């Protein structure tokens, strides 16, 4: 897998997350959209913007968790400093989104030892 493919995958993960937010999400969706410019310049193979079948806070939470997992996995694929710095920014933003969405859903902000990894039933 080359860098363009990795960045394309990162961009699609964030696009999926954005498409999953309901109209009522307000600032949560705005923060997710702020990540797009960070990725658009890096992704050569972005593809079409995916759409969620049923936007909701729960769907957005699932999409943000997937984005977080995708960003964490990319750290092992890209070794240059600039890529790792951008991935660190994306990981922090996705983790913040997961926590904020969990609070909106009246769930504890973080219950997993490793955010982005489901380690409990």
Automatic annotation (TrEMBL):
What's the name of the protein? DUF4439 domain-containing protein
Q: Which organism is it from?
A: Solirubrobacter deserti
Lineage here is: Bacteria, Bacillati, Actinomycetota, Thermoleophilia, Solirubrobacterales
